[in-house]
Amino acid sequence: xxxxxxxxxxxxSLNRLxxxxxxxxxxxxFFSFSKELVEQIKLPLPFFIKLDDVEFGLRIKELGNNxxxxxxxxxxxxxxxAKNINWExxxxxxxxxxxxxxxxxxxYLDAVKxxxxxxxxxxxxxxxxRAQVFIEAFEDYTKGPEFIKKVDPESFHPYIIKLSKxxxxxxxxxxxxxxxxxxxxxxVAIKSSIEWSSVSKQWKSAAQEMTSTIFWQQYLGLK
Length: 223
Hints:
The protein has 223 residues and is an all-alpha fold. 61% of the residues lie in helices and 0% in strands. The chain has 11 helices and no strands. The protein has helices at residues 11-16, 35-41, 52-62, 80-83, 86-103, 108-124, 128-141, 145-150, 153-163, 175-210, 213-219. It is globular.
């Protein structure tokens, strides 16, 4: 975060606010831009929530435009660490991987190592719900952009919420649940190794279409 915990009674702190920062992100909770910009870079991706503003900001920077912060403006809310909403992890993981595929080249081993670490930590803490959500998100990413195009967010979101609360006994030892989740992750990880490069290319090539006005008109059922 910019300008975090600075003392505004100090003149040096006030001068710091005048510095032009090199930003690549503007949160959609308070972010304005021109119609001309949208005509240049098109619309956001249909992520429903999470990371759509991050991906949008990357496109702005890639065209050489600047994102300018307004220091007096801020949004006050609980930090993500205090919310502890498990279903959010699904959108963060799936959409983060898609964003990386579109703008960079996510490495298979790096991605698998990261998710494996989370799954192991979650199973060790008997937090089976968290492990399941991460596995689901990773698997849905590997289904490619066609999955995003076809899924209906209004009906899909309740499913993710339910999935994130599948294990009522998640704070108790359940060896069978842990074994099943671990085996599922191994299956997903091994399968994804074969299609990883192809899926990454699919996301990259589909980005132009999925940010177009025509796509959004069809996606939202507009005339």
